[in-house]
Amino acid sequence: MHATHLCCPRCRWETELKLVYSCERCGFSLDVRYDYDSVDKSALKAAFSGGRLWSFRELLPLSAGYGPLTLLEGGTPLLPSVSLGKSFGFELLFKDETRNPTASFKDRPNTVGISMARQFGAKAVAIASTGNGAASISAYAARGGMPCYVFVPEHTSASKLLQIRSHGAELVLTPGDYSASFAAAQDACLREGWANMTSTYLNPYTMEGDKTIAYELFSRLEGRVPDWIIVPLGAGAMLTGVYKGYRELQALGFVSELPRMCGVQASGCAPITRAWEENLPEVLEWENCETVAHAIADPLTGYAKDGTRTLTTIRESNGCGITAPEDDIIRHAAMLARKEGLYVEAGAASASAAAELLYKKGLAAHGQTVVAIITGHGLKENKIIGGAPDESKG
Amino acid sequence: MHATHLCCPRCRWETELKLVYSCERCGFSLDVRYDYDSVDKSALKAAFSGGRLWSFRELLPLSAGYGPLTLLEGGTPLLPSVSLGKSFGFELLFKDETRNPTASFKDRPNTVGISMARQFGAKAVAIASTGNGAASISAYAARGGMPCYVFVPEHTSASKLLQIRSHGAELVLTPGDYSASFAAAQDACLREGWANMTSTYLNPYTMEGDKTIAYELFSRLEGRVPDWIIVPLGAGAMLTGVYKGYRELQALGFVSELPRMCGVQASGCAPITRAWEENLPEVLEWENCETVAHAIADPLTGYAKDGTRTLTTIRESNGCGITAPEDDIIRHAAMLARKEGLYVEAGAASASAAAELLYKKGLAAHGQTVVAIITGHGLKENKIIGGAPDESKG
Fold first, then answer.
1. How many angstroms separate the CA atoms of B287 and B304, rounded?
2. How far is CA A381 from the centre of its chain?
3. Which residues in chain B are contacts of A340 at CB distance < 8 A?
């Protein structure tokens, strides 16, 4: 285990590895840091030859004496596009995160986050979410025999909570909208010592799960670095996580280039990509969030600074933000099903829509390699691809 | 490619590799045969070190000049039970087939079946199914740009066909029950030259996909053969396929032992396991099929001989048939979600229910290894685990 401490990427404040959710000096989110010089690179090469998420344990923060709480997540396929990529003239590859245990990428951050929570002796986990994040963490908590508290707005329909309830998670209904649930989860965690697994930059360990996507891409592409990686954004921790993974590969001497990161949001809720398009210094909260892409619909109310962190990563990587029109997203969900054999949720279809926009804007050139991350399975929101509207969050 | 011909396992009639659905002498289903002596065993050893279904191409029937039609299926995890196995006193392992592209094991038989259909020049594929089989084959057909005809009873609710429709498959509504759809699909395939992918023993190539489960178990267990493998049964081609995989491993000198095969059906539709329990020479059709385990509800109307083939395999393997009470299945679906973190469809929960019955009947002994095949994801039938009834077939 080579993780050494937590560090604030904004003001450089440092602290030991523990359950803490923000910089005590400036209030920003925190990052896990490693001593890369001590990593056994030949052992790592074996891990890169395949395997699932925990085969990268050398670069994860779990202490040697602790076992991971795992459902054997990760190791997802990289599927070449057979149709869309051809019309764009570049190599389009789908990183199929629907193949994780609970059918979305959230299993990556959560397996690391809950394993660390267990290491630190947390008695329970909590999350503010009604969607993929909650379904995922409730499955892991069930497997680990840990209580799990899911904070949701009080008017959330019972039907969309079926999967969460079946894992035995406790629902905490809060008055008001999602922001109120977010705040209530945060308060309860600080008060009770529960580990907060809410899918933002809040928990510094979850991004360590996201970054393993970079390792798997490195492995599957045999060291070749994609020109672009397209990531659907809620708060955007996955985008920053994947980029962190590549920066680590660079620090370890495995790659020299870095990919350009493309973040995509739906036009009905696009605080981060709007800030990129308007060249704002900071991300602002989004008002009147209304989109078909529920899994990535995050207005960032109360934590716009998380969006700013994602915006910073996009700029660092010489990447771009893309706002995908709602109609494009629906059209791409249908195209993925009809032309590629992929049945995905609308949030995931936004990655495919962004690939088309990278092509139309001339940002991805002929012969380049573009990876689109397919974040969640269509079975999670059958009605959208079939035509009728649905609702889901987080 | 080492496949040599098709052979009738009952009367030994032989024919070349082609699209044919029954023995022209006795009417039984057919089997793909190989020349095992010509297989390069060292190349095979590399395939066994991991990878997905088509890494076992040496032992699959696709000719060298043809590419597989694949969504990168297989390579699914073998997840140790953390709760149930402990109370039974044996090592219980879940082979998690929900991690396939369309979230059920059907992607294995279908990727091989449709790849062979393409090799033989079939212009389209067809299936009689309203459930996992149809969802799977329509995804593959979409990816391959092949027309796909799905035969369903005319009163099937539109909502359960959403996934199938979204892949662009053509629905053919037939008057009467599932048997009528089965017959209509068969007629249309013979008339039009479409490849019939109906999930029974009809298509001799699909079982070649099922058998790869054995190879993966061999690989993951590092050569150790499980004492028992539990397979939920519709017609039971998967059970015979997995056993065939182990017999091939024996023929190739990789294993000396064979596993005992346990087939499980739900008490509301149990033609095969009833025949085993009553020690009948042949399986009889089931009347008034009514079960919560829709994915394995097959009364075998019109093809009871397929059930007899499965029964024969169970007997050959010194295995057993288990009829799981409906209440046990519902209880196990809930237990898997609450104790193991696995969200599965009722048909898959029957495998867990069977593990408990193997324990109670004293058939699986202390310290033995039992593999339960988890056939399909709970997202496919949310309502059952949540409490309310649902409907699905095939």
1. 12
2. 18
3. 142-143
- Name the CA dihedral angle for B247, B253, B257, B260, rounded to a multiple of 10 degrees: -20
pLDDT at residue B116 above 60?
Answer: yes
Establish if A103 touches chain B: CB-CB under 8 angstroms: yes
Of A75, A163, A378, the CB nearest to B343: A163
Question: Which pair of structure tokens corresponds to residue B54?
Answer: 């088509």
Distance CA B301, CA B180 (A): 10
**Using one digit for the tens of pLDDT, what is the confidence trace for A203-234?**
999 999 999 999 999 999 998 999 999 999 99
Give which of A52, A69, A125, A143 to mutate to test B binding, by max B Cβ within 10 Å. Answer: A143
Give yes or no for residue B219 having a pLDDT over 80: yes
Q: Do the beta carbons of residue A267 and residue A291 sit within 8 Å?
A: yes
Count of residues for chain A?
394
Q: Write the DSSP string, B58-95.
A: GGS---TT-----S------EEEPSSHHHHHTSEEEEE
Q: What is the rounded CA–CA span in Å between residue A237 and residue B30?
A: 53
Burial class (CB in 10 A: 0-12, 13-18, 19+), A158: exposed
Q: How far is A100 from chain B (nearest CA, A)?
A: 7
Residue A71 tokens, joined: 């459902």
Is residue A137 within 8 A of residue A114, CB to CB? The reply is yes
Q: Extract the tokens encoding B190.
A: 């013979």
Partner residue facing A341 (CB), from B71, B162, B341: B71
**pLDDT for position B131:** 87
CA B84 to chain centre: 24
Enter the ipTM: 0.94
For tokens 């990268």, what's the residue? Answer: A56
Distance CA A168, CA A188 (A): 19
CA-CA distances (angstroms) from residue A26 to A10, A12, A22, A172, A305? 8, 10, 8, 30, 12
pLDDT at A374: 98
* C-alpha span between A11 and A27 (Å, rounded): 9
Backbone angles phi, psi at A324, to 5 degrees: -90, 125
Interface of B with A in 104-163 (CB under 8 A): 135, 139-145, 159, 162-163
Nearest Cα neighbor of B103 from A129, A215, A344, A125 is A344
Q: Note the pTM of the prediction, 2 decimals.
A: 0.95
**Among B residues 164-183, those touching chain A with beta carbons less than 8 Å apart:** 165-168
Question: Is B43 exposed, middle or buried, given 0-12, 13-18 or 19+ CB atoms closer than 10 A?
Answer: exposed
b/e B163-199 (16+ beta carbons within 10 angstroms → b):
bbbbbbbebbebeeebbbbbbbbbebbeeeebbbbbb
